[in-house]
Amino acid sequence: SSDLLVIVELDFHSEEIACQAYLTGDKVMTDMYQHPKIGNDYYTTLANSIDPDVTYKKHPKRGKYKIVSLMLNYGAGAKKLSSIVGLPLPECKKICFKLKRQFKQYWMFVERAKAGVNRAVPLWFSDGWRIHSYPSGKQTTLGNFPFQGVGAYILRLILFRMWKEDIRLVAPIHDAVAFECDEATWKETTDKVIKIMMDCSEKALGIPVEVGAPEVTYPDIINCHSELETRENYAFTTPNKYTQAFTSWLEFDAEDSLEPDLDEGTIWVDEFEKDDENSSSSVANPFGLCYISQ
To answer: Which of 229, 162, 228 is nearest to 199 (CA)?
Structure first.
């Protein structure tokens, strides 16, 4: 048996889009994410819906439309998008208008979230993470909180589940995780972490988010280089991107909800109202709106 250690990185497949689609119940976005018709890729399919000439993943406009879509969803306007992607302002305005009409349910959800917090309605996640209204608060922050917040919520669940399973975390990387394990058991450990990630995303969103292929690296690339060249059936990559630094986690259970200290007269609401015509009733919601009665 080998005494070598490996570091494995696992990343969700377009988790930002999954959070936006599943949390808002937008059927158009969900269908495009789950069943991309062009190139088996969400962003190529999205770009094709804007410009039918985009029919393959390496099309030069695909990257520009991807940036426009992501930044628009996070609050950027047409003028800023035009300066960043180099498209004429009138074209950017048309694209923004088309995307907002295409994903109507998503934008209704965003506006309701902003309106709620602006009316002193704090958003709470079930593990205690919250956002309150504040006088100088940016509207983009309020609109982004449900999606960035649920992504962070999923990651917190994953990290504590990994700690429970005694899996040696190296680092969280945005919506990905890197962990260390023995070379002899890396495939079994990777399967275990993939299941943890999918379980945690399903707990938060009601639907599991797909996890991409693992990226495996030897910690000590110099000492292992000769063995790397002779190994087959391994997806090893070079050079090493990580250090063997580990984090000690506080010993408390992420499954235990931190109950918010609610004022008398508060009503707890589990879900936003959804437009029946363009929403999915099966979508879970990991946070509630607290409507403070007058």
So the answer is: 162
